[in-house]
Amino acid sequence: MYVADSRNAPATAAARDPGPGRRAAVAPTVLALGTVSLVTDVSSEMVTAVLPLYLVAGLGLSPLGFGLLDGVYNGFSALVRLVGGHVADRGGRHKTVAGLGYGLSALCKPLLLVAGSLPLIGAVLAADRTGKGLRTAPRDALISLASPEESRGRAFGVHRAMDTAGALIGPLVAFLILRQAADGYDAVFTVSFCVAAAGVLVLLLFVPSRPRQAAAPAAGAPRASLRAAVGLLRVPGVRRLALCALLLGLATVSDAFVYLLLQRRLGVTDHWFALLPIGTAAAFLLLAVPLGRLADRVGRGRVFLGGHIALLVVYGALLSGWRSPALPFLVLALHGGFYAATDGVLMAAAAGRIPSELRSSGLALIQTGQALARFGCSIAFGAAWTAWGDRWAIGAATALLALCTAVAFALRPAHHDDPTPGGATPPPSATVPEGTPV
Known about the structure:
mainly alpha
C-alpha cells in the first residue's frame, strides 16, 4: 500500500484529477488507514461489546455509575483532541501523533485485567480515550488531504466501512471467547491487546507520513496554532457546522444504553448481549460507502440531518411498547444507518471549509464539541434512568433529539458542503477571516 502511494508524480496527478467521466479512485493512504482502523476496531469493539455487562452485571454498578464511566469512555478524548490536532499540524506530524494515540490505547487493554474498582477503571478508560483523542483528528486529516474534494465523502465512507468491518468482527470474537474461555473477560482483554498491537504495526509500516496529494502551503497561509484553530469559528460555515454537531450530540444516547434498553425489552441473555453491536456494525458497513457517495452528490448537510432522523426513529421504537421479533432488526439497522450518514459525512463536510495547514486542528475543534456534548448526554441519561426509570429517560432523549434536529435544520450552513471547482481545497484566505490570530 505504501509503495502504491509513492509512485511517480503523473500517477498522483491522475488520482487528483480523474478527468470527465471517470470516478476518482480511493487513495492508497485511505486504504492503509482503513486497514489500521479495521484491525484496531476489532480490538476496541471486543472490549466495548462486553464492557456494559462486565460493569453492570459483573461489578454491580448502577446505571448512573455506568453512565459516568461511559461518559468518560466516549467524552474524555475531547479534552485532548485540540492538543493532538495542534501538534499534528505543527510540521505535518499527522502520522506520528496518530501512532502515539493508537499505541496508548493498545497499552490500556491489559490494564483492564487489574482494574477492579470504579476509580481504577475510570482512569484506564480515560487513558484509552486520550489515545483516541490524539489519533482521530490526525487520521481524518490524512484522509482528507489524500482525497479530492469532490469525492471526499466517498473516501470517508470507504474508511468508515473498513473501520466498521472491525466493529463487526470484534463483538463476534468477544462472543466466541466468552463461550469458550473459563475466565472470559480476562481472555477478551488479553486478545484485545494483541490485536491492537498489530494495528499499530500496520500504521508504522504502511501509512506514509504525508499524502502525496496534499498541496504545499500557500503563500500567506495561517500558521498552525490553537488560537488559529479556534479562530475558524469566526467562519460562518464552520461555526454553524460546529454548533449543529454540538446540539445534536446533546441528544445522542450512547450505543451501550441502546443495547441495554434492547436487552430489557426483549430479555436478551448475557451470552447473546455481545452480539447486539454486530447489527449496528453490519448496517454501518453496508451503508457507509453508498451514503458517502450520496452526500457528495446531494449535499453532506442533508445526509447528516437525515441520519439523526433515523436515530429519532430508533428512540421512538425503544420508547414504544412494541415487542415484536422485528424490533431488534429495525433498531440496529437504523442505528447503523445513523452512523453511516453522520460519522464520515461530518468530517467530509468540515474538511471543505478548513485550510490544509489547520486541517487536523479544525477537525478536532468540531469533534471536541460533539464529544463533550455526548459526554454530557451519557451522564444525564444515566442519571435520568437511575432516578425515573428507563422509559422516562428515553422519552426525554426522544423529545430533546426532535428539538435539536429542528434547530440544527434551521442553523445548517448554507452551501457548506459544495465542492470547490476542480476538487481543490479553498485557499486559506477564503476560509480563515482576515485578522484571525496566528
